[in-house]
Amino acid sequence: xxxxxxxxxxxxxxxxxxxxxxxxxxxxxxxxxxxxxxxxxxxxxxxxxxxxxxxxxxxxxxxxxxxxxxxxxxxxxxxxxxxxxxxxxxxxxxxxxxxxxxxxxxxxxxxxxxxxxxxxxxxxxxxxxxxxxxxxxxxxxxxxxxxxxxxxxxxxxxxxxxxxxxxxxxxxxxxxxxxxxxxxxxxxxxxxx
Amino acid sequence: xxxxxxxxxxxxxxxxxxxxxxxxxxxxxxxxxxxxxxxxxxxxxxxxxxxxxxxxxxxxxxxxxxxxxxxxxxxxxxxxxxxxxxxxxxxxxxxxxxxxxxxxxxxxxxxxxxxxxxxxxxxxxxxxxxxxxxxxxxxxxxxxxxxxxxxxxxxxxxxxxxxxxxxxxxxxxxxxxxxxxxxxxxxxxxxxxxxxxxxxxxxxxxxxxxxxxxxxxxxxxxxxxxxxxxxxxxxxxxxxxxxxxxxxxxxxxxxxxxxxxxxxxxxxxxxxxxxxxxxxxxxxxxxxxxxxxxxxxxxxxxxxxxxxxxxxxxxxxxxxxxxxxxxxxxxxxxxxxxxxxxxxxxxxxxxxxxxxxxxxxxxxxxxxxxxxxxxxxxxxxxxxxxxxxxxxxxxxxxxxxxxxxxxxxxxxxxxxxxxxxxxxxxxxxxxxxxxxxxxxxxxxxxxxxxxxxxxxxxxxxxxxxxxxxxxxxxxxxxxxxxxxxxxxxxxxxxxxxxxxxxxxxxxxxxxxxxxxxxxxxxxxxxxxxxxxxxxxxxxxxxxxxxxxxxxxxxxxxxxxxxxxxxxxxxxxxxxxxxxxxxxxxxxxxxxxxxxxxxxxxxxxxxxxxxxxxxxxxxxxxxxxxxxxx
Lengths: 193, 629
What we know:
Oligomer: heterodimer
Helix content of chain A: 25-40%
Number of strands of chain B: 27
Structural class of chain A: alpha+beta
Strand order of the largest sheet of chain B: 10-17-11-12-13
Number of helices of chain B: 17
Distance between the termini of chain A: 60 Å
Strand order of the largest sheet of chain A: 1-4
């Protein structure tokens, strides 16, 4: 495994430069909200270690790679001042380049209705949305919103901002599902319908 | 301390500040401010009657402010000399102490600070260190949670002469804690606060844990650590003893401490690295092992003593391995943690070494200095003509140059270490260095480049490092180009721009500017000055469109003989790659500019005569070459 150059790839990406400064103190892990509330296996310290030890497949499969929300609680606590979420984002980028997919349902654009107003790109906290020219059936070459699944964290801010209902999170957090859920909670017996 | 005070030849001056240090090795003139204690040392017998009647109580600094002291006090019970002191800021002038003192009449409110001047041969600085205040680390809640204390506070609580007579209690309710935690590296090894390791805290926390365990064997004691560093003799054994006593060690840096507001119990959140899991444990008392930091007035003392500071703020030693007890200024020595965090055995060893070093000064009638000291030609110094300059003073790593506008700069010979930085920096060529005068070095350059200069590589090397590197290349039989011509100076700071201009004026093929690595300089900051000049020269030659590689700057240590050989071979390859006619044209193009920059050279005393002599040598070389052809 050693020598495949994952660590070098990560170092070359902005945010990944300080990778080797980690001395495994564990502050980031014990500070992390994702670790505490969501996923006990989530461990940024271990991911950094995996990258340093060139454990390519393992680090792509690790939930830490995909679940970091870049809240940066760990960054000010890190005694080595490593921008940990930057490193994780860098790992994610390399993983996406290697055809790995996030287990999350990332935002999807309906390119037939998108008007390229740019509202979604503006609200996206992860800079995952860009406006690009695409050749589309019936619409010709026209600018539309494009989501980078490697950066998208499936927060749904774009879906809430979109005025033409052209972007959003599919499956259990789609607008229809959420409205359905609200309706069911408000009206458990079916009395209002 | 008691022993020292009893020695007839030792004078202990407490409560005294060093205000000014002038002079040089063997002849320091030190101005001291003996602060007024308002108690006469010749009359006080240390009975303490004044403290008994004093109605004022203020926090006791020695007890980490955990206990009060009176306004009439001694700093600690073992104080030497045992003379009471009136804290005049806290005193309300009730004069009860004067009454209590009675016929001794030791208390005198009319006392004033005394300024004393002393003739001192050698100075040993042993000002110690201070502690990092963990209040800014909000995650640990020091000063917010009553049961989070520092280990210095724990030290006082644990001490049988301390405020609790040796019983370790919780500040919140005075109960005996059963679950104790120590957190190491608080503030240290942390780029946000103190980057360095504080050296002794691992052993210190283990010692405190062992003490606490001995006092209360049922206590549950845990040490949180990132790495345990126990490198000295007997330390690892002590660590093992702590483990065998049942003290827990958890590897992991706690991210935060939370508190139960009712019981004031504390919860430490950390990742247990060995388990790979985030854990949360409850404790009654948490001790923070803070980083060691320089004394708050270390910057001030550093300017008073005129000694430099290392990046962390500690006093800088002459050489980190070979002369850790010497300051760069002759006659000033360091002992203990003022030079860097140190445990007791190392401090004692350094103190003894410093005392031995100082006695060398005291027992010699004369002092040997470097033979290569600098001298100012006062008639050439522009300051003597009233102009503002001071470049030499700023460049001197030892503060050996006295500069006052209007007077010629003056080198304090006893302080000069002979690096030649001032000589290289002086824009008016008003300073010279013994044995490395401009005339001598220019003569060497002319002689070495007498024949076929365009094929030669002139290598300027510093005495301590790159010259050693070249030497090692030779003794190790590393082959490198025979076209190299080396010149030794004491430091890269001495490599005057004129030397390089002269080399190119004569048509040198290439010039190597080499010195030590930045942190290795034998003259503190000489390399920094040399590197700055090299950078300037690189820019100048770049602007003149000189072929890249004809001027090269390399930092080569005395252990890098292979690097020296490699650099020279690379330079030869670069030189070979330039077509001879192009090189010739370039040399001719640059010659007038170089000559222009050197126009003032003949005015330097001695240069004219040296050049006449060199002319003879050069002609001899050339005629011999011709004859052999």
